[in-house]
Amino acid sequence: MGQSASKPRPQISPVLEGNACRLTSDADDDVSGYDYTLDLPDECLALIFYSLAAGDRKRSSLVCRRWLTIEGQSRQRLALDAQSQLADVFPRLFSRFDAVTKLTLKCDRQSVSIGDDALISISLNCPNLTRVKLRTCRELTDHGVAALAENCRNLRKFSCGSCSFGVKGVNALLENCELLEELSVKRLRGITNGAAAESIRPGKAAATLKMICLKDLYNAQCFGKLIAAAKNLKILKLFRCSGDWDELLGVLADDVLWLVEVHFERIQVGDLGLSAISNSANLEILHLVKTTECTNIGLMAVAEKCKLLRKLRIDGYRTNRISDYGLIAIAINCPNLQELVLIGVNPTHLSLNKLAANCLNLERLALCGSETIGDAEISCIAAKCIALKKLCIKSCPVSNHGMEALAGGCPNLVKVKVRKCRGVTSVGADWLRASRGSLAVNLDATEPELVDAVVHGDNNNQAVVDVDSGIIGRSGSFKVRLGSLTDSIRRWRSFVSRIRSKLGRNYSD
């Protein structure tokens, strides 16, 4: 009992300093510090690195050799500048990053990109790649892409843009990569160089493809057989692709039954194409951007058959081919509509009333470049769109009165964005903010220039303010000018009162 408790023996632990290692004990922790990361297993450090931003992750990997090794082995995403000189460092690069599954190769337009040999080397060192993105790799040919497809058969997403390979390379991908789910092709030069007569074969990937995106292609219709054979295709995006798409979509009308999302932008498609797309009863998202041949007839066909529609975006390009009739059909047949974006379309209170009455889940609404959206239409939206949360108004004849209507309506509204609406000033926005404290108001109203004013004394030594109304700027309504002058008048009244006090005389207002 008289013996004191024995003091535990200090535990010796290794501490890494740069590339050197020394021993330290618990007794001198306060002096030299202790590397507590040594107690963490490699798997925990890998999770920490995974949560860091790209820059922090790079800097952290330089702390010590252990961190460098763990960071390299845990990195799954890698983006490289794919210039020709990159091929010289491939052995060392991929010996460190041996777990990469997502690879991006992007070259500057004015530089020479890597060639087929480099791509083959990558495919041999990274057989587990699941995502590959190629940008401006103009030195790659069908041979290199075919080797990539043969060596990396687990590819699920493939994207290429401004490359030079052609149909044979794409066919090799579709034939060898049985798990391919997403295919994105943009400005593929090899397809236009004498390959117009050759078509894309479906291959084994047709059974798994869920998304096809084609952009800026002169001969995109050579993908027609692939689109028809992709029975599980859910997303189809066509951007600025030449050719008559009405004819092709008409042929594919019975083969695109499972589409959920469709994007058409600047392509030659009209009501026949929309009627073919309407066979997809599961369609939920439809974007029609500057498709000048689409009219109310095609939109009504979509509305009648695609009753699950949730998001609709229409850029009418000021052609006035889609109006109240098409929007009323959407309102009557698509009660699940949650998001509606109208650009260059001129709806009136007739269609807005129907949309507000039938689409009770409408949460996001954008009205841009419309000549018919005024204060009356905004008042209709404020009174009847109960579920609305976000509202965007741009380049519409709306004034401060419309903002006043919003202040008392749309109980669930959380954000309002107003752009290029000359009738809306900061006075209306401030009043809206004051009335709805929790509402986020984003306004870019340009106030008229401040008026010039001269203060002088009249014959009775009374201060007089002369306002040169010609400096107001562009002509506008009297209410707009009056609202912008309110603050200026207050300031000048204060200035006048100071002058009176200095003169030492009593003046009545």
TrEMBL record:
Residues 38-69 form the F-box domain. GO terms for biological process: SCF-dependent proteasomal ubiquitin-dependent protein catabolic process. Residues 268-437 form the F-box/LRR-repeat protein 15-like leucin rich repeat domain. Pfam families: DUF7885, F-box. SMART domains: LRR_CC. InterPro entries: F-box-like_dom_sf, F-box_dom, FBXL15_LRR, Leu-rich_rpt_Cys-con_subtyp, LRR_dom_sf. One of its GO terms (cellular component) is SCF ubiquitin ligase complex. PANTHER family: LEUCINE-RICH REPEAT DOMAIN SUPERFAMILY, F-BOX-LIKE DOMAIN SUPERFAMILY, PARTNER OF PAIRED, ISOFORM B-RELATED. This is F-box and leucine-rich repeat protein 2/20. It comes from Salvia splendens (Scarlet sage). The lineage of its organism: Eukaryota, Viridiplantae, Streptophyta, Embryophyta, Tracheophyta.
